[in-house]
Structure formats: C-alpha cells, structure tokens
C-alpha cells in the first residue's frame, strides 16, 4: 500500500542552535543581506545610467546582479526571521514554492555565467567580429535562453520532489527547502529521484563549469599574441569572471554531483552558495574593473549635485 501524503508543514532546524549565538548570527546575516541587495542594486543602477557601460558584458552583468539579488532574497529573509522564532515552520506549499524559486534563480545564474564566458570569448578571440556577432538581439536572446533554462531545470527538480509521499517525520535539517533534505524525508525509495537530481543539477553544473574552464583556457592562450596593455585589461576582466565561476560552481558541484546523502558540511556550503556568493559578485566585479568604478563615481557625483540643488 502506498504511503499517504499527510505532511502539511515542515519544521526547519536552521543553522544556529546555540541561543547565545543567535543574535550574533542575526546581525551577521542581516548585514550580509543588506550588502547583497545594495551592492547588486548599485551595479544595476550604474549600468543603466552610464553611457560608458553599454557593451554586452555590462548588459549581462546587470542581469547577473538582478539574479543574485533575487537568489539571495529567496532564502536570506526567512533565515533571518527564523532566528527569533522558536518553531521554524514552513507550509508544504511554501516549501515546494521555495524549492522551485531557489533552483529557478540558481539555474538561471548557471546559464548566465556561461553566456558571459561566451561573450568574453568572442570579445577577446574574435574582436573584429564582436559587434556583428553580439548584437542587441543576440544578447537579449541569450538572456532569455538563460531564464528559460533556469525555469526548465527548476520545473524538473520540483516535479521530482512534489510527487514523493511525505508521511512523517517533517523536520528538515536545513534552513530552507532543498531537494536533498526533502528526499531524506520521503517515505518511499528515492534512489531514482536522487539519480535524477545528479543528472539534472549535478551534471548541468559540471558541464557548464567544464565549458567555462575550457573557454577561459582558450582565451588565456589567445592573449599571448596581444600587446601588454590589451593583455592586462583582458586578464583583469577574465580574472573577475573566473573568481565568480569558482566560488559559485564549487559548492553546487559538491552539493549535487553525488548520491542523496547528507553531510554535516552541507549547510555551511549552501550558506556560502546562496547567501555569501551573491554578496561577493558585485565586490569582485567592481574591485577589478576601472570602468565600473569610474561610472559609480560619476553616478555618485550626479546624485550629490542633484540633492544639493534640491536642498537649495
């Protein structure tokens, strides 16, 4: 007889069980979330308002910042609010919705980073054809394809999970609803579902990571023929992209390219992936990019002039 679905809510065990440390964790994650939202919002506003940041690279960067901001917002506010709640619950429907949205934005970011690597490859390896290849239509289509890819990936993950029976227990040893912890709670054999997770999440992450690594190797090899100034500028841009790729894909491959077993390190790795990384991306891109820093300075001066004239 098939087990019936009688779980209406899940209890999230969270990441901090020490009551003395909870206020510290609360302040830490609040500051990180504020920095994430403000940092990514600053990049979006800067790119939109700067006449010098109109190249496809910055077009993709603004979308990456938007995805990062949304990705963090799916998990961070709930995590922060739960520090002051004794019983951290989430409804079954809320849990499935959170699972879908997390993988939607996570999948979109995977494909968007791959698109950004393609953009850098064309810009550096085929500079004479760059403007004819990376047209506005092509850039818009690549962004749309990233959204569609994220949606399809997320839909598969969600359909795999929602069809599983949950008849208790209902405690998720995590701070948000993800596939692996939910597979552990299902009261049926989840081997096939676990393998599908590896194929869907793990292999997508690994294949895109390999494509990214190969593309950057090709780019770095092609730089040998460039002038020292051109090489320095290209290396600076690629170094930022490579850093983002490593810190984003590393945790994903660790989490999803293995059987559905739960490790004690999983929560910390996921915190890094869903909360820390979205904050680091704007820092990495701005610290090593003079064009973005200059555009931000001009935006700051423009805002100061606007407010000073308004006050007078």
Task: For the structure shown, list the relevant keywords.
312 residues, mainly alpha, Rhopdopsin 7-helix transmembrane proteins, 10 helices, 3 strands, 74% helix, G-protein coupled receptor, receptor, sensory transduction, transmembrane helix, G protein-coupled receptor activity
Would you kindly provide a written description of the structure presented here, covering whatever features stand out?
With 312 residues, the chain is mostly helical. The protein has a single domain, classed as Rhopdopsin 7-helix transmembrane proteins (Up-down Bundle). 74% of the residues lie in helices and 3% in strands. The protein is built from 10 helices and 3 strands; from the N terminus they run E-H-H-E-H-H-H-E-H-H-H-H-H. It has helices at residues 22-49, 56-82, 92-125, 130-133, 136-162, 179-185, 191-222, 228-256, 266-287, 290-311, and strands at residues 9-12, 89-91, 171-172. The protein has a 3-stranded mixed beta sheet. The longest helix has 34 residues, at 92-125. It is globular. It starts with 8 loop residues before the first strand and ends with a helix. The chain crosses the membrane at residues 20-45, 57-76, 96-118, 130-156, 191-223, 235-257, 269-287. GO terms for molecular function: G protein-coupled receptor activity; olfactory receptor activity.
